[in-house]
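Need residues for this backbone.
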């Protein structure tokens, strides 16, 4: 069980010499490594980091967890735009991302551009994207920065002075601040118009009207919580944990709201939503189009 071929032995000696040199450079920090973490360090030392590949793996992990699924979907949106900007190439070496790269990406988002996407059947189609306003630019660059922070967290170990990614371009780039949101409070007469509006049964406008009213009666319950359908009725009160903030509060954002007479029939309508839409994203799109019609 010994290797006798001198050529193979020479190749192995080169590899082992490189490992031994890397281990000796760790000096006292070696004590902090287990055998498994040392193996990971040696194997990953010379790996070129593909930012888009990492983003895909990171987003998939987020979307597999119910608490972070929405965050994963948001980050996937900016990843798609990065692929469009990268001439649809899904490989992006991390060293290519500089302050100039971010500036050109921002400029790309501010103009009409062609975007490649996949439909529900997995087929690729092309559509034209509209120029994005400052509010959207802020969100996209913020999410881009989040992805970059995640890749730094994975590959850098500052406590051991092991810094694989030596430059964070977002530290030298000023992301445009989020604009002051417009006040969008509805007047009483608008709420009454929504309630009394006659629309086609089964349409997206009906969906928007009914869920809009129900959300109003339940003090702002979100579409995602109707979609998850994890609420219970206890002694005339609807109880649930608000998805948007459940991961940030010790009480898991528990909410209890009295169910009014106006809300009871609409709750029956809401029960059908999970079977009508394959994801919360599809529901949100239907709501958006339905609200525009409404």
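Answer:
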């Amino acid at each position: 069980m010994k290797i006798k071929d001198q050529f193979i032995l020479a190749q192995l000696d080169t590899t082992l010499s490189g490992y031994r040199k890397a281990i000796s450079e760790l000096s006292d920090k070696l004590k902090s490594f287990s055998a498994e973490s040392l193996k990971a360090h040696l194997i990953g030392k010379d790996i070129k980091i593909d930012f888009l590949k990492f983003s895909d793996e990171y987003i998939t992990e987020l979307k597999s967890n119910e608490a972070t699924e929405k965050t994963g979907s948001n980050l996937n949106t900016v990843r798609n735009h990065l692929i469009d900007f990268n001439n649809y190439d899904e490989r992006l070496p991390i060293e290519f991302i500089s302050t100039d790269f971010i500036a050109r990406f921002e400029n790309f988002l501010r103009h009409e551009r062609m975007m490649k996407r996949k439909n529900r059947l997995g087929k690729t189609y092309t559509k034209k994207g509209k120029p994005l306003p400052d509010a959207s630019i802020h969100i996209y660059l913020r999410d881009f920065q989040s992805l970059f922070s995640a890749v730094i967290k994975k590959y850098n170990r500052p406590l051991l002075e092991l810094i694989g990614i030596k430059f964070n371009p977002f530290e030298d780039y000023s992301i445009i601040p989020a604009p002051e949101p417009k006040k969008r409070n509805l007047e009483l007469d608008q709420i009454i118009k929504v309630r009394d509006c006659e629309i086609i049964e089964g349409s997206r406008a009906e969906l928007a009207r009914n869920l809009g009213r129900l959300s109003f009666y339940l003090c702002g319950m979100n579409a995602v919580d109707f979609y998850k359908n994890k609420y219970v009725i206890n002694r005339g009160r609807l109880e649930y944990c608000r998805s948007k903030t459940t991961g940030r509060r010790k009480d898991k954002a528990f909410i209890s709201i009295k169910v009014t007479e106006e809300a009871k029939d609409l709750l029956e309508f809401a029960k059908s939503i999970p079977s009508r839409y394959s994801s919360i994203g599809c529901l949100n799109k239907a709501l958006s189009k339905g609200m525009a019609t409404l």
